[in-house]
Amino acid sequence: MRKPIIAGNWKMNGTITEATILVEELKSLLGTEELPCDVVLCPPFTTLATVLDLVDETLIGVGAQNMDYHESGAFTGEVSPAMITEVGAQYVILGHSERREYYGETDAAVNAKIKAAFQYDLTPIVCVGESLEQREANHTKAWIEGQLEGAFKDIPKEEAMETVIAYEPIWAIGTGKTATADQAEEVCRDIRKKMAHLYDVETAEAIRIQYGGSVKGSNAKELLSEPNIDGALVGGASLIAADFKAIIDGTK
């Protein structure tokens, strides 16, 4: 059985003060009981250390929202995998559609970042997804398969098995539109089939696949009950403790 994983992508939101309030509220809501899933918070770089301190001695994991694949050097404004590991984070989001659209990230760059992440013991959350135009043109499957081929080029099986893949239809991110459970399941099933083709069935069955795109407490249970959806990458709802807790509860 794959353990569900719920990750909150705060994006460019949250000062240190705001992050402290949010995490303390979430901790209060979650209590000290064992969680029904892996929970990961991905705050901005400036609040990583604070959030890590706040969740110390809890079961909540922490991840960065991005990283460079270089170890160091003249890359102004970037953060290296060594820096993320040293601060104590365990996860990193790679290839988010906003990074691809606004900053020109390519599948080759995502591939390099995945390799760098594993060198520094970070678990990558690798994002894939199609635009509304691609979906309407019936190109979803081919587009996402291409993203997977590029992202996982020369990634060994042992590392692929540890990767989390997040399916985020671009047309559903921050729009209020959500893929139906059937639509999300269809694509997540295709992702698993593609990973079986790239590797083998054992690898594909081990990989956790999240759905992301306007996930909230009211639709989480239906989405997370699908056999190939192993969690959610949550945007706006992760900034409200009660809403994020409701999504976590959807894994029960």
Structure overview:
This protein is α/β, with parallel strands linked by helices. It has a single domain (5-249), classed as Alpha-Beta Barrel (TIM Barrel), CATH 3.20.20. The protein is 44% helix and 15% strand. It contains twelve helices and eight strands. It has helices at residues 16-30, 48-54, 81-87, 97-103, 107-119, 132-136, 140-151, 157-160, 181-198, 201-206, 217-224, 241-249, and strands at residues 5-9, 38-42, 60-64, 91-94, 123-128, 164-167, 208-211, 231-234. An eight-stranded parallel β-sheet has the order 7-6-5-4-3-2-1-8. Helix 7 packs across helix 9 (181-198). The chain is globular, with a radius of gyration of 17 Å. The mean pLDDT is 96.
Write the layout of secondary structure elements.
Elements: E1 5-9, H1 16-30, E2 38-42, H2 48-54, E3 60-64, H3 81-87, E4 91-94, H4 97-103, H5 107-119, E5 123-128, H6 132-136, H7 140-151, H8 157-160, E6 164-167, H9 181-198, H10 201-206, E7 208-211, H11 217-224, E8 231-234, H12 241-249
Parallel strand pairs: 1-2, 1-8, 2-3, 3-4, 4-5, 5-6, 6-7
